[in-house]
Design brief:
Length: 168
């Protein structure tokens, strides 16, 4: 199998049902930021939901970016490691440099309807092989004949190959 450089995307969805403390803080703080930032687009309080704002108020799609400021500190706490994705030894190994924050749904009057996604984009890695439903990857390229340290991990929901570059 020819080697390929891949970048993975992991889409982490956070809503009121998440039990992890980090997820809860991100959920609560992004909701408060949404309530505050949406006032700029909803001064007459005509709309309650994010969807209503998107449909009726030009420029409301900027709320994705404006609300993302509330989560950047939490993302720094991850020290560049994508959460929830483990290799077959139970270790977090997937690193990221970029992310995209997205408001899926929200209602200024109901935190339980607030739902967001953080799309993490991995650093480039070498995809060596596929073993059953697992990818064998390494985080660095090496010279021919050198030992390569790899990670084997199972494909799971909300992970996809974002981009691919053939090395052959």
């Amino acid at each position: 199998m020819p080697k390929k450089i891949i970048i993975l995307c992991y889409r982490k969805i956070i809503d009121d049902s998440n039990a992890n403390p980090w997820d809860k803080f991100v959920h609560e703080d992004s909701f408060l930021e949404f309530k505050m930032q949406s006032q700029l687009y909803n001064q007459e309080l005509k709309y309650n939901t994010f969807a209503e704002l998107l449909i009726n108020v030009p420029g409301a799609d900027k709320l994705h970016f404006l609300v993302s400021a509330a989560v950047t500190g939490y993302l720094r706490q991850l020290n560049g490691i994508i959460p929830d994705v483990l290799d077959n030894l139970g270790r977090r190994f997937l690193t990221f440099e970029n992310f995209k924050f997205e408001i899926i749904n929200s209602d200024i009057n109901d935190i339980e309807r607030h739902k967001i996604a953080i799309n993490f984009f991995s650093k480039p890695m070498v995809w060596h092989d596929t073993v059953d439903n697992q990818l064998l990857v390494s985080l660095e390229q090496t010279m021919e004949g050198e030992e390569i340290f790899t990670n084997l991990f199972q494909l799971q929901p909300f992970i996809s190959i974002h981009s691919i570059k053939d090395l052959s």
